Amino acid sequence: MKLDIKIPESLNDLTLLQWQKISKVASIKNVTELDIGIKILEVVYGIPKDYIDKMHSKDITNLIAEYQKAIDNKPEFKSKFKLNDVLYGFIPNLDEITAGELIDIDSYSKGVDSNHKLMSILYRPIIKQSGTDYEVEKYAGANGNLKNMSLGIALAAQGFFLTLGNELIQSIVASLRVENPQLLNKALRKSGVGISQLTHLQGATFLDMMKS
After folding, report:
1. Which DSSP string do the residues of 178-206 spell out, in sequence order?
2. Any bridge partners for residue 136, and if so which?
3. Residue 89: per-residue pLDDT
4. Buried/exposed 79-101: b ≥16 CB within 10 Å, e otherwise
5. What is the three-state SS of 24-50?
6. Which of 4, 30, 138, 166 lies 20 to 30 Å (CA to CA) from residue 47?
């Protein structure tokens, strides 16, 4: 059996879905390094399990080392990217994030399985642009297509959003308290969290998200 194996050179050669699949295995209690390595070979290199069983240990070690080198690269933030002929843009005005979107960000930041849902809030199809300015679609829930976005772009976006910290979140919550307290309370009741929890997103769930 002849395999066409492509070696990833950077995070941009990997997809968010591949990362999710590997992370899911890595999170299993008592998982072994061999189990994780086999999943890397299957997901990243497309090598079938029955073929892996016949591979030399040196070849397996080399392929896993190449994967490790790729994910050790620092991700680069991009405000725009194209996926399946659709141009996506990072939300141009973070100050306009709604209470509902904040609640979803909190929820989707708690596990790697939901990372594409988080990306659906941060990146949306561009519907209008003029020079460097652009407008994105309104948030309409999870976009499954973003599972196939570049892992490098996804990780960089998470890091960029993390650096905004509590100041932005607390500013938005404070504004909603004054301008539209009913909307804020409705969103909080729906999610089952309180304002004190919402204003500590950066200190807890966002940090956990980056660690995962």
Report:
1. HH-HHHHHHHHHHHT--HHHHTTTTTTHH
2. 126
3. 95
4. eebebeeeebbbbeeeeebbbbb
5. HHHCCCCCCHHHHHHHHHHHCCCCCHH
6. 30
Task: Give me the pLDDT at residue 162, please.
Answer: 66
Asked if 61 and 88 sit in the same domain, the reply is: no
Q: What pTM does this model have?
A: 0.76
Q: Alpha carbon 78 to chain centroid distance?
A: 13
Higher-scoring residue by pLDDT: 113, 149: 149
**Structural domain boundaries, residue 33:** 11-71
What number of other Cβ atoms are within 10 A of residue 190's Cβ? 11
Helix (H) or strand (E) holding 136: strand 133-136
Q: What is the H or E stretch that residue 170 is in?
A: helix 151-179
State how many domains the chain has: 2
AA letter at 158: Q
**In angstroms, rounded to a whole number, what is the distance separating the alpha carbons of residues 27 and 42?**
17
Identify whether 159 is part of a domain.
yes
Residue in this structure with the two tokens 């973070």, named with its chain if needed: 94
CB 199 within 8 A of CB 176: no
> Is residue 17 exposed (0-12), middle (13-18) or buried (19+ Cβ within 10 Å)?
middle
What backbone torsions phi and psi does residue 140 show, to the nearest 5 degrees?
Answer: -130, 30
